[in-house]
Target: DNA oxidative demethylase AlkB
Amino acid sequence: MLDLFADETPWQEPLADGAVILRRFARAAADELIKQIENVAQRSPFRQMVTPGGYTMSVAMTNCGERGWTTRQHGYLYSPDDPLTGKPWPAMPQAFRHLSDAASAAAGYRDFCPDACLINRYVPGAKLSLHQDKDEPDLHQPIVSVSLGLPAVFQFGGLKRNDPLVRIMLEHGDVVVWGGASRLFYHGILPLKPGHHPATGDIRYNLTFRRTGKSE
Ligand code: SIN
Ligand code: FE2
Model:
């Protein structure tokens, strides 16, 4: 298929202290990443998790790697097994690892070695309320977040829930990396607008790479 943007050179936009947007960084790898998402989801299907407060999340999730993020009655945790299948989460695909390594290096985080990837699937209307990524034991390790398919508005704030928010449109292939001073900044995704994307149809995927075990 003719892709007018296939040759677009990636560029960087600073977001906050320790945080940067790598525009279009994952675009060349996007088709392979999407294929691997589908592979993972065949073994550990997307599911809408229920929060400890009893709220069914609008975003559907699955995981790959050594551990996966799941909700529990009394909180959140990284589990080595998928509670839905009772089996370990699928291994992290090579293409995922390569992309995360390249993105973290481009953002200046040279020693990031993710052992988990949360995969989010948004359909129109799905959103992710403001939250911090704070379930990881080593907060020196950044988060690498990859957007695929339909665009979405990302909100990025500060250490307090009511700090001012910036709103950024994240498009197919954009990567956001946050760590250091902004590692615990609140962030979220506004309700996805309906649309069609040639790579994913009416869906937005997001990959977040995390270090969930002790770093070497
Ligand atoms: C997340 O905060 O885990 C995902 C953010 C996104 O979907 O871009
Ligand atoms: Fe998050």
About this structure: Residues 131, 133, 187 surround fe (ii) ion (ligand 2) (CB under 6 Å). The chain has one domain: 17-210.
